[in-house]
Design a protein that fits this description.
The chain has 693 residues and is an alpha/beta fold. Helices cover 40% and strands 17% of the residues. The longest helix is centred in the N-terminal third of the chain and has 33 residues, at 207-239. The protein binds adenosine-5'-diphosphate and magnesium ion.
Length: 693
Amino acid sequence: MESSIKYVKGVGPKKQMLLKSELNINTFEELLSYYPYKYIDRTKFLSVKEAKSSTETVQCRGYITQIKSEGAGPKERLTAYFTDGEAFIDLVFFTGVKYLKQSLKLKEPYILFGKPKQFGNNVSVVHPELTVDKGGEPNGQLYPQYHTTEKMKKEGLQSKQLFQIICNALDIIDSEETETFPDWLLKYRNLYPKRYALNGVHRPRNFEELNAATYRIKFEELFFNQLKVIYLKIDREQKYKGNKFPIVGDLFNQFYSQHIPFELTGAQKRVIKEVRHNMNTGVQMNRLVQGDVGSGKTMVAFMTALIAIDNGYQACLMAPTEILASQHLASILEMKHDLNIHVRLLTGSTKIAARREIHESLEDGTLDLLIGTHALIEDKVKFQKLGFVIIDEQHRFGVAQRAKLWRKSIIPPHILVMTATPIPRTLAMTLYGDLDVSVIDELPPGRKPIITKHYFDSKRDKINEFIHTEISKGRQVYIVYPLIEESEKMDFKNLEKGYEQIADDFPDRKISIVHGKLKPKEKEEEMMKFKNHHTDIMVATTVIEVGVNVPNASVMIIESAERFGLSQLHQLRGRVGRGADQAYCILVTGDKISKVSKTRMQTMVDHSDGFKISEVDLDLRGPGDIEGIQQSGDLLDLKLSDITKDGDILADVRNIIFKIAEKDHKLAQPVNKKILDMLIKINKGLFNWSDIS
Ligand code: ADP
Ligand code: MG
């Protein structure tokens, strides 16, 4: 499977280069896992009436009633009226006309094969394949269709030629060498052997075979995907001890009994318990906490940090932006009251003197909790005894950054990753299968659901009237725009133009403006003005998306909402509804929007649950597209599997892998050799597997 495709019949140096440059296909394995994107079905006949409303290639039985010729010489074209006695369809020919005029016979039974196209009111098939119908069942098959590029087409490497090359490769591979699963696993789930499955996917004889073959390939993709993440976790647990935090000490207890400003929600309690359990097992924790916006993650972060500090360790909390880091500092300082802990903030704009103090107090151990941006992962930042790391808003940090934090301590710290981007369960498993996952699936009590409405641009007056009313009641309003500068081609509202319009519409209101081009300090100042209610309206781009907390702001207007993804819309909406007042989110779109955009708007109007929304999102966009997931693309090497639909297979393979790991966690048994080989192969360069195998 790892041999070069130059050994395949039909692949000369030119095609070899072309396949490499256009599709990145170099080996048999890459060639054979270049799967068809669809199949043309020649296993059945449609009636002419059915064929006329199809957009696929069709096959029908019938006869020709009349043949008409138009034009002359090379411009001559032929139209044949084809019918099955019920409906008519035009067959059109531009080439080979002379021959066809002689050979096509009226009233003769034919099998028509081709793709119907609508021209005005008329449906016709251009250059169909016509064969004499000898009766009986269709003896055709499923014809695979492969994506090719313009360049490939120009060089004569179209779907059909590619299919031929793939067939040539299929003919010479070895069943035993191709197989990636041990026999017991094939039998256990009644799976097609690999070679048989490849055959069944590329040249299926019927749907049954295609389905069974597809199942085997999906099973394999998900199996090795999960094997990788699950064994990554096993490997880590074997290799690294974790700090033990057995003490629930004074700080935690004092805070809980004296300072906690509200009753924790059941979900918050549960997550704190899960973390506390991890912290005391002697195994390093890697836990992902998913909690919708406003679910109270900061409290969980703070209380679990207290446990680490109670046990004599230092903790740090890393946020993706300065605004967020400062906000965390502010709410933690407020929560901590007179608790005797030393907390500092470190960001890119921390002054040198303060920086020096922070470095020193980190190294001598007097600083308990450091809050900051990615400035925290700089090499200069050294802890005396780092035991616990909290990362807020996971999707902005990559795996590499997580790893960097680890190395700040000989025994790696426990890691808690908090994200407000709810990820559907199946996706979380494929992406973060190496992390334990906690979910804060409950909002603090008394929150009124945010009323969400979708308005078209043409209803501008109504929207403005509403803004007026809310501001008169003492509320504040966000207005968010997707773009900073006007794009020439596209007619989207830009922030500056929007700002001028708003200034015109609301002459006696104070307006803040925040966008990505401001310096962090200017941004902060504008945010603070709004937060302290010195301004009524905040005009902004998505920089306010993450985490900003202004309880008095109760209206979120999202302009050109069709430009935003669902999860972004949900995040933006989460900026309001943080106070006691009824909150509103108004999605403003152009009058003409696509069907998908309409579905997105309606989803927002109908649902407030981030998980539900993320499922719809996954459905509409497909897994590779989810915001923030792109960076993890290497983890999602799935070609046929669709994690939105193949959740059952995913659950099944996970169970099987856990069972294997229980009995043979080193994959040392001969019956698991094939699995071990594959794991080593997929982990090449990822981590040093030899440590455990
Ligand atoms: P997020 O999960 O979005 O980071 P926050 O931690 O910012 O949410 O919490 C949102 C708001 O809810 C804050 O004002 C916080 O004080 C409040 N809050 C958190 N937990 C509770 C609770 N159990 N009961 C009432 N209010 C809570
Ligand atoms: Mg938060």
